[in-house]
Amino acid sequence: MKRVLREIEDIRLDQVHGASELALKALQVLGSAALGSKARTAREFVEEINSYAHLLRSARPAMVAITNCVRCFEQFMKKTLAHCCDIEEARSGVLTAVERVTDAVVSARYRSIAHAAELIGDGAAVMTCSFSSTVIETFERAKEQGKIFKVSCLESSYGNHKYGELMAARLEQSGTAVEVMPDREIDDMLTGIDMVLIGSDVILLDGSVVNGYPSLSAARAAARAPFPVPVYCIGDWTKLHPSSQPPVYDPGLDLIPSAFIRGIVTENGIVAPSGLSIYLHGLSC
Predict the structure, then answer these.
(1) Which residues cross the membrane (predicted)?
(2) How far apart are CA 176 and CA 78, in angstroms?
(3) Which CATH architecture has domain 2-109?
(4) I want to staple 249 with a disulfide (CB 3.0 to 4.6 A). Which of 50, 62, 118, 260 is the partner?
(5) Distance CA 154, CA 188 (A)
(6) Sequence ranges of the domains in the chain
(7) What CATH architecture applies to the domain 111-281?
(8) β-strands 253-256, 157-158: how paired?
(9) 3-state secondary structure (DSSP) of residue 125
(10) How far apart are CA 12 and CA 60, in angstroms?
(11) Rounded Cα gap, residues 48 and 33, in angstroms
């Protein structure tokens, strides 16, 4: 189906949306493919959906959220369609799998954001960088709670994009004022900052984090500040890579060693980098 292939290609080329947004978009593509399939038998239908799932996992191999969500979908689909012979039953099973995984993703994201918002105290000064829809929603949640706080964002200039300005524009739409500073002024920007809060593209089992440029520079600057500034990253089960070896990640992403990370804000609360293996064992998908 040309439309589905075009949507997968859009995900592959997308340089604006965050990992969580693209993972949800991948699930939407699978649902759309199920609804629009012209397969004549249940077997043809399942093979078609499996082929799209494979293409989605291959589209952005460095974006673990997509891989994890699609694999979780495949697990649900396999269980649901184990003895299915009717094409409409198969279609219903795929849509159910999409709905269940989407609900799991949205729920984990919502709870992670809630825990992250609790970190932001009234009157706090928070620094961030790159672009993260999860971080944006965390600030919006804290604002809804009546907290008054300051957000400083590094310009995060890479290629033709200034991702910090994109984040600032999104935040200003919800009434949150943001100070955007050039990347070269990281050290000066940390004066008076209470914490650094970033998103994540990948969380490795040893607690290291892959996130957009200049996250590594920000974490290093926070560590060498006269009064070291804690660095927290937000990430739920969709971001977890079950290894300490990072996948080949896209240009414009940084690998931040776990030594620079105070805590990872998950759907189950704040987890120390050293506690990720226990967190992983508690996951169901």
Answers:
(1) none
(2) 44
(3) Up-down Bundle (1.20)
(4) 62
(5) 11
(6) 2-109, 111-281
(7) 3-Layer(aba) Sandwich (3.40)
(8) unpaired
(9) strand
(10) 6
(11) 9
